[in-house]
Amino acid sequence: MRTILVSASVSLLLALFCTPLAIKIFSRRGYGQLIREDGPAAHATKKGTPTMGGAVIVIATISGYLIGHTATASAMSASGFLVLGLMTGLGLVGFVDDFLKIHRQTNLGLRSRAKLAGQSLVGVVFALEVLRYPNAYDLTPASAYVSFLRDIGPAIGVVPFALWVVFMIGSWSNAVNLTDGLDGLATGATILVLAAYVLIANWQLRNPCTGVPVSAHCFAVRDPLDLAVVAASALGACIGFLWWNAPPAKIFMGDTGSLALGGVLAGLAVCTETQLLLVILGGLFVIITLSVVIQVGVFKRTGRRVFRMAPLQHHFEVLGWAEATIVMRFWLVSALFVALGLSIFYIAWLPG
Q1: 142: which of 47, 103, 178, 316 lies 20 to 30 Å off by Cα?
Q2: pLDDT tens-digit profile of 39-48?
Q3: Rounded to two decimals, what is the model's pTM?
Q4: In sequence order, what DSSP letters do the residues of 91-138 get, joined into one string?
């Protein structure tokens, strides 16, 4: 518990006090946000706001994790390193995308195929590595199963598992990216889901299957404590960053942050054996992603639009809702999904 608290505190303070420095550096170098020409008119005032702030989140998360373990003399784990590696790898893909946008002075960075290739490469490495590094109880950071509250059904094999994990990573990193369209929206929603994973990993730590028969009342997770530390580190970094990203934002996370945060959520879901539960915990991200899928699919078939604009948050902007109102209400929706997911997780554990 001490490691969780120290890591979260360090990452929060680093993000809180280093983000203003990043704002100054990015502003001087002209690393400003470019605005969609077809976007809401109110977004014109955001042009030039420093972007790539996600680099602060990634650095603060890793620093908080390392300093927390060093300060408390606790052991690091393969699971923690792999999830942080996934976060960093996707953050680098996002950084390249952001940098190309700024360099070209256009809203288009990496081509979709190149971006997908980068995400897939990082995802494949993660998927293969989490099946290695067994501990004394022969538990690896993940196993070749699909999971909901724990692994379910028969093992699906290494190749199908790798494809499934790559799909998850691509889906969640892009989902957070689509949600990052209003000041603080994606950051706040991610904070809520990360808080849920701190609780979930702690519960798994206190109810291990080691030394007892495997049942619905224990969890065969390799490193639940360290996964809670990773979640807490990312949580603290997001809270510190949100201070400057809240409406009106002084800095945006960019693809650097959105891809990295989507990656850490997917990584935590894989390593805590809650892959499908994340669909509920991250319900807001799912809804926003579906709004884009529906909009594009219906428009291609009929030439008509279901929403005034996609993703969904922009639909409400066009309807005249204030940005702060949309952000607050979407955070409430996210909180309800997190509460539902945690309730399902806890009720399924209860004896009887």
Answers
A1: 178
A2: 565 555 567 6
A3: 0.95
A4: HHHHHHHHHHHHHHTSS--S-HHHHHHHHHHHHHHHHHHTT----TTS
